[in-house]
Design a protein that fits this description.
Number of helices of chain B: 19
Structural class of chain B: alpha+beta
Strand content of chain A: 15-25%
Oligomer: heterodimer
Strand order of the largest sheet of chain B: 3-5-1-13-10-11-12
Radius of gyration of chain A: 18 Å
Largest sheet of chain A: 5 strands, antiparallel
CATH class of the largest domain in chain B: Alpha Beta
Radius of gyration of chain B: 27 Å
Number of strands of chain B: 30
CATH topology of the largest domain in chain B: Aldehyde Oxidoreductase, domain 4
CATH architecture of the largest domain in chain A: 2-Layer Sandwich
Distance between the termini of chain B: 63 Å
C-alpha cells in the first residue's frame, strides 16, 4: 500500500469539498478499495471517509418507501429493514461474511457496481432511486455496465429509496471461492407489475429480464417461466461457469426467487 | 502407566494452548535488531529472455540497501534437487539448473528476477516498482503434451527437450502386460486428469537470515517441515557453508501439507544477503506471492487400463501418465510421479501384472512437488475410479468386484508386482466396517427419499493403500534418493527426573509435542507433563529428515522408542546398583524400579538423581548421566489402508453436489492418540473433498495463473465438509516398527477424491445419465451440469 492522507468529515458539504482534490477518493466500507490499495492496484492520495456523516446512515420508512442511508452497513440493513422489507434484509444478511457485513455499505456497493454484487440486483429489481448530493437517479438509468454507473466524478450517493414491494425475494447461487454471487436474482412484485433483476451472470453487469417480468406479471408463479430460457449471449465465461451455465442459472434462480417470495 | 496420558489416550493437544490463544511463535514473529526487508521482483510473464535489468533509479530510492540480481550469485550453486530418477533406457533424468534469481531467462510467472533489500518492506516494494526490466517475451509451453512436441519452445535452452524423464515400471513387465491385455476377456479404460492444486497452508512462507560476523555464523529462521534437510542442501550445495557454521530453525509452523518440505530460493537469498549486508534480512510471503512461488501439487494426465478375465479377476493394469514438473525441479519432485506413485498402483488388489509409464515434463509453470499424499492420491484416484467404471461396465456390484480382487487377510506379507511388500492389512474388514457405519444396506430407501425432493443421491466407494515412512535408506538410495530416510531422537533425562526429548521430526500441526510425550510417558511410566518435546532447531536436535509422508510416528516415534529403551536399559543398571541386585532382575513399572520377587524398589527420580549426582554409583562400569541418542532406519514402508464411503446429494437443476455423509474406516495399525488421529483424518478429508469438488489451479495458454487468489481458488470451508464418521477400530499392527504404527496424516486426502467422484457418477447413473462415465475434478456445479446436458 502506498502512503495516503485520510480525512473523516462529519458533514456532506465537507466531504464534497474534500473530494474536490484531484487525488481524492471516497471511502465507505472499504471492502473493495482497501484490498485494491493493498495490492497496489489503486493509490489515491487522499481518502475521504463517508462513515462519519450522520445523515448518510440509517434505515427509515417513508410511506411506501424504505430509505437507507448510503453509509449504512449490510449488517444494519439486515437488522433494521427486516420488519418493512424482509426480502431486502435477507439479501443484506447474506452478503459476504460477518466482517464484510459489519464494514461494507449499501452505497459503497452501488457506487462500485461489481458485476457479482447483490445490491445492484436489489436496486434494479425494486426500481429504486439512487439519491446523490446533486440529484436523484432512477436505478434503470444508474447502472451502465460492470463497474460503471451514472455517478459523476466527486458525486456522492447519500441514500437509496427502495419502493416496498407486495412480495419480493432473491435467490443466490454462490461462486464457491469468495462466495460472491455466481448468479443472483431479485424478484419483486408491485401493483404495477413484476420486476426481475440479475447480477453475476452478464458481462454487462446487472440487468432486467424482460421476458420473465412479462410472464410473472401475468401470473406470479414459478411455473409461469418454466418454459423460458435466457440467451447465453454476453454471459460471463470464467473458471466457475460457462455462459450457457449462467444463462441456465438465470432461469433456475428466478424460479427459486419466485417460490421464496410466495 | 498414567492412564490419562499414555499410549491410547485422547490427551488434549498441549501445543494448542499457545496456538489458540495467539501465542504461537511463528517465523514472522521473529524480528531481529537491525532487521531489513526483502521484496522479490517476480516475472509477470511465463517465458522470456532477460535482456536487461536497470536498477539505477531503484537503488537510489529511500531506504534501499542493495538490489541483488543473478550476477550477485555467480559463485552460488543452484537450488538442488534431492532425487535423481533413471529413465526407461537407463539414463538419468534431465536436470536443469535452478538459480536463486532468474539468470538469462524467466521461466514462470513468479520467477524471481531481482531482490530489493530496504529498511522497510514498503520501501523495498516501492523500489522494486522502479526497476526497469527489458524482457523479450518468448512463447510459453503450458500444456504437457504440447510441451513434448518436437518443435515446442524449450523451457531450458540447454536441455535436449522438455522431457525430464520417460520412466517405465516395472520395465521388465512391459511386454507381459501388453500380452495380458491382448488375451483378456474384458478391458476397461479411463482417461482422467488429477487437477493441479495449491497447498495454501494458513501461514505463508517466511525466511529470516541472520549473520554473526565475529563468529562467521549463519542462522536461518524458516517456515520449514525439514530444517536439517534445508541446512544440508543449502549449506552444501548452494552457499557452501559448513554445517557447524549454519543453524536452521523452523519454529512454530502453521501448516505445510508438503509445500514447506523443499528448499526454496528465498531461504538461500536471506541467508546470503544477511552476510553481504551484515544485517538480518526478512522475507514474508504475501498470499498472492504464495500462489506463484510455493510448489504446487498433483497435475497428472493419465490413461489407465484394466484387463480382466471372464470371472472378473484383475489380470493386468497399464497406465500412461504425463506429470508436470513445472519450470524447475523442486526438491523431491521427480520422486512423486515415480517411486511414490508407481509402487502404489497395485492398490488393495492382487493384480499380477502392472506397467506404469510416466513422462515428466517441464512447462512454464510454478514447480510441482509433493502435496499431502504425494503420488499416492494420484495412484489411488485412477485405480479406484477405474475399478468403479469396470463394475459399471461389467454390470457387477462395485463392492463385490473389489472384494473378489482384494488381497486377503491371510495373504500377508504380500509381494506386489510393483516392488513393494505389504506387511499387514485386512481390506475386507475395513470395507465391512465402512459399509456398516454407512448403513449401506438401506441406501436405496434414502435414494427414494431424495428423489421425492427432486434430488439425486449417490454413494461412492473407494479403498486405498498408502505407503508411509519411505524407507529403508539403502534401498531408496538405489532408487535415486540423494538423502537418507531415517529419523533421529535424543532423550535427555534431567537430574530430577523430568525428560527433554529432541526429535528430528518437525511438527507443523501434527501434535508431536503431545503424542511423542505420550509414548515416552507410557514406556517409563511417568506423567507426560514431565516430558517436553523439542524440535525444529538444528543446533539442538540430532540430524533428522523432518516431517512428510506420514512418517513422524512410524519413523520419528520409533527413534524415540529406541532412545528411550537405551535410557531404560541404563537406568536399570543404575537401579540394580542402588538395589544391590542384578540388572536382569530389575523391572520397571509405573515409574518404579523393583527387584523381581522382592519388595525392594527405587523410584524413577531416585535413579535419575543418582545418574547426575553419582555418589553411590558404579563409576567403573557406567558413565554418569542419562542421555541417549538413537537413529532409526525402517526396514520397509508402513501400509495404512482403508475403506471410504461418500454419500452425496446432487441438485439436477444446478449440478451442485452436497456431501451428506463421509465415512472413513481406516487401518492405521496401533493408535497413540485417537483424538489426534481423528483430527488428522478430518483435515485430510477436507483437502481431498476440496480437490474433488472445488480446488483447481488453472493457467491460461500464456501461462498466467487464472486462479491466483482466493477470489478464484476455492478452498473448502467448514460447511462444505460435514458429516464425517471416522473409525480406526480395524487394526493390523505394522510388523516392523516397535510401536506397530502406520501413519495417518495423508490417508484422508488419498482416499476421498475417488469416493466423492464415484458417488457423483453413481447418483447420475441412478438418475439415468448413463452416458456419463467420468467427470474431471473438480466437480464444480458448472461441470456437472454440462455433463448432464451434453
Amino acid at each position: 500500500m502506498h502512503n495516503f492522507e485520510f480525512v473523516k468529515p462529519s458533514t456532506l458539504a465537507d466531504a464534497v469539498a474534500a473530494l474536490g482534490d484531484g487525488e481524492a477518493q471516497p471511502l465507505s466500507g472499504g471492502q473493495t478499495l482497501i484490498p485494491s490499495m493493498k495490492a497496489r492496484l489503486n493509490a489515491p492520495g487522499l481518502l475521504v471517509s463517508l462513515t462519519g456523516i450522520a445523515e448518510l446512515k440509517g434505515v427509515c420508512r417513508e410511506g411506501d418507501m424504505l430509505v437507507i442511508g448510503a453509509a449504512t452497513t449490510h449488517a444494519t440493513v439486515a437488522a433494521d429493514a427486516a420488519a418493512d422489507f424482509p426480502g431486502l434484509a435477507a439479501l443484506a444478511g447474506q452478503i459476504g461474511d460477518h466482517a464484510v457485513r459489519n464494514r461494507g455499505t449499501v452505497g459503497g456497493s452501488l457506487a462500485n457496481n461489481n458485476p457479482s454484487a447483490c445490491y445492484p440486483a436489489a436496486a434494479l429489481g425494486t426500481g429504486a432511486t439512487i439519491v446523490t448530493n446533486a440529484r436523484e437517479i432512477a436505478a434503470d438509468d444508474y447502472f451502465q455496465g460492470m463497474f460503471t454507473t451514472a455517478l459523476e466524478e466527486g458525486e456522492i450517493i447519500t441514500s437509496i429509496r427502495f419502493p416496498i414491494p407486495q412480495k419480493a425475494a432473491y435467490a443466490k447461487f454462490l461462486q464457491p471461492a469468495p462466495r460472491f454471487a455466481l448468479t443472483v436474482v431479485v424478484v419483486a412484485q408491485y401493483a404495477s407489475g413484476v420486476r426481475v433483476a440479475v447480477t453475476g451472470a452478464s458481462e454487462g453487469g446487472v440487468f432486467r429480464w424482460a421476458e420473465a417480468e412479462a410472464a410473472l406479471s401475468a401470473k406470479f408463479d414459478a411455473d409461469a417461466i418454466a418454459g423460458l430460457s435466457h440467451s447465453s449471449d454476453g454471459m460471463i465465461s470464467d473458471l466457475h461457469g460457462t455462459p450457457e451455465y449462467r444463462a441456465h442459472l438465470v432461469r433456475v434462480m428466478t424460479q427459486r426467487a419466485v417460490r421464496a417470495a410466495l | 502407566m498414567p492412564k490419562d496420558d499414555g499410549i491410547g489416550a485422547s490427551t488434549k493437544r498441549r501445543e494448542d494452548v499457545r496456538f489458540l490463544t495467539g501465542n504461537g511463535r511463528y517465523t514472522d514473529d521473529i524480528n531481529l535488531r537491525g532487521q531489513s526487508y526483502v521484496h522479490f521482483l517476480r516475472s509477470d510473464v511465463a517465458h522470456g529472455r532477460i535482456n536487461g535489468i536497470d536498477t539505477a533509479t531503484a537503488a537510489a530510492m529511500p531506504g534501499v540497501l542493495k538490489i541483488f540480481t543473478a550476477a550477485d550469485f555467480a559463485a552460488a550453486g543452484g537450488i538442488p534437487c534431492g532425487w535423481q530418477v533413471t529413465d526407461r533406457f537407463g539414463k538419468p533424468m534431465q536436470e536443469p539448473k535452478h538459480p536463486i534469481l532468474a539468470d538469462g531467462k524467466v521461466r514462470h510467472v513468479g520467477d524471481p528476477i531481482a531482490a530489493v533489500v530496504a529498511e522497510t518492506y514498503e520501501q523495498a516494494r516501492d523500489a522494486a516498482e522502479a526497476i526497469e526490466l527489458d524482457i523479450e517475451e518468448l512463447e510459453p509451453v503450458i500444456d504437457m503434451v504440447a510441451a513434448l512436441a518436437p518443435d515446442a519452445p524449450k523451457v531450458h535452452d540447454d536441455l535436449a527437450s522438455n522431457l525430464c524423464y520417460d520412466w517405465g515400471f516395472v520395465e521388465e513387465n512391459r511386454e507381459a502386460v501388453n500380452a495380458a491385455f491382448e488375451s483378456a476377456a474384458h478391458v476397461v479404460s479411463l482417461e482422467l486428469t488429477n487437477n493441479r492444486l495449491v497447498a495454501n497452508p494458513m501461514e505463508p512462507r517466511v525466511a529470516v537470515g541472520d549473520y554473526d560476523p565475529w563468529g562467521d555464523n549463519h542462522t536461518l529462521y524458516t517456515t520449514s517441515q525439514t530444517p536439517h534437510v534445508i541446512r544440508l542442501l543449502m549449506g552444501a550445495f548452494v552457499l557452501n557453508i559448513p554445517e557447524h557454521k549454519l543453524r536452521v530453525v523452523a519454529p512454530d509452523v502453521g501448516g505445510g501439507f508438503g509445500s514447506k518440505i523443499y528448499h526454496y530460493a528465498e531461504e538461500a537469498f536471506c541467508t546470503y544477503a544477511a552476510k553481504v549486508l551484515k544485517r538480518p534480512v526478512k522475507w514474508t510471503s504475501s498470499r498472492s506471492e504464495a500462489f506463484i512461488s510455493d510448489a504446487h501439487g498433483r497435475d497428472h494426465k493419465t490413461k489407465i487400463e484394466l484387463a480382466l478375465d471372464g470371472d472378473h479377476n484383475f489380470l493386468a493394469i497399464r497406465t500412461d501418465t504425463y506429470a508436470n514438473m513445472g519450470a524447475y525441479l523442486s526438491t523431491f519432485a521427480p520422486s512423486i510421479p515415480t517411486w511414490l506413485h508407481g509402487t502404489l498402483m497395485a492398490g488393495n488388489y492382487k493384480t499380477p501384472l502392472i506397467y506404469v509409464n510416466v513422462k515428466a515434463v517441464f512447462t512454464n509453470t510454478v514447480p510441482v512437488d509433493a502435496y499431502r499424499g504425494a503420488g499416492r492420491p494420484e495412484a489411488t484416484f485412477q485405480l479406484e475410479r477405474l475399478v468403479d467404471k469396470a463394475a459399471r461396465e461389467l454390470g457387477v456390484d462395485p463392492v463385490e468386484l473389489r472384494r473378489k480382487n482384494f488381497i486377503k487377510a491371510d495373504q500377508f506379507p504380500y509381494q506386489t508386482p510393483v516392488a513393494v511388500v505389504y506387511d499387514t492389512g485386512n481390506y475386507d474388514a475395513t470395507l465391512d466396517k465402512m459399509l456398516e457405519l454407512a448403513d449401506y444396506a438401506n441406501f436405496d430407501a434414502r435414494v427414494a427419499e431424495s428423489k421425492a425432493r427432486g434430488k439425486l443421491r449417490g454413494f461412492g466407494i473407494a479403498h486405498y493403500i498408502e505407503a508411509c515412512g519411505i524407507a529403508p535408506s539403502n534401498l531408496v538410495g538405489q532408487l535415486g534418493a540423494r538423502a537418507g530416510l531415517y529419523e533421529s531422537a535424543s532423550v535427555r533425562v534431567n537430574a530430577t527426573g523430568s525428560i527433554s526429548v529432541y526429535t528430528g521430526s518437525h511438527s507443523h500441526g501434527q501434535g508431536h509435542e503431545t503424542t511423542f510425550a505420550q509414548v515416552v510417558a507410557d514406556m517409563i511410566g511417568v506423567d507426560a507433563t514431565s516430558i517436553e518435546i523439542h524440535h525444529g532447531d538444528t543446533s539442538n536436535t540430532p540430524m533428522g529428515m523432518g516431517t512428510y509422508g506420514s512418517r513422524s510416528l512410524a519413523v520419528g516415534g520409533s527413534a524415540i522408542v529406541k532412545a528411550t529403551n537405551k535410557i531404560i536399559d541404563k537406568a536399570k543398571k543404575i537401579a540394580a546398583h542402588l538395589l544391590e541386585a542384578a540388572p536382569e532382575d530389575i523391572e520397571l513399572k509405573d515409574g518404579k524400579f523393583s527387584v523381581a520377587g522382592t519388595d525392594k524398589s527405587v523410584d524413577w527420580t531416585g535413579v535419575t538423581l543418582a545418574a547426575y549426582v553419582p555418589h553411590n554409583y558404579p563409576l567403573e562400569d557406567l558413565e554418569p548421566g542419562l542421555e541417549e541418542t538413537a537413529f532409526y532406519d525402517p526396514s520397509n514402508f508402513t501400509y495404512p489402508s482403508g475403506a471410504y464411503g461418500c454419500e452425496i446429494e446432487l441438485d439436477p437443476e444446478t449440478g451442485k453436489i452436497d456431501i451428506l455423509r463421509f465415512i472413513a474406516a481406516d487401518d492405521f495399525g496401533n493408535i497413540v492418540n485417537p483424538m489426534i488421529v481423528e483430527g488428522q483424518v478430518h483435515g485430510g478429508l477436507a483437502q481431498g473433498i476440496g480437490q474433488a469438488l472445488m480446488e483447481n489451479c488453472v493457467y491460461d495458454d500464456q501461462g498466467q495463473l487464472l486462479s491466483g487468489s482466493f477470489m478464484d481458488y476455492a478452498m473448502p470451508r467448514a460447511d462444505d465438509v460435514r458429516g464425517f464418521t471416522v473409525d480406526h477400530s480395524c487394526i493390523t499392527p505394522c510388523t516392523h516398527n516397535p510401536l506397530g504404527v502406520k501413519g495417518c496424516g495423508e490417508a484422508g486426502a488419498i482416499g476421498s477424491p475417488p469416493a466423492v467422484v464415484n458417488a457423483a457418477i453413481d447418483a447420475l447413473h441412478r438418475a439415468g445419465h448413463s452416458h456419463i462415465s467420468h467427470i474431471d475434478m473438480p466437480l464444480t456445479p458448472s461441470r456437472v451440469w454440462a455433463a448432464m446436458n451434453s
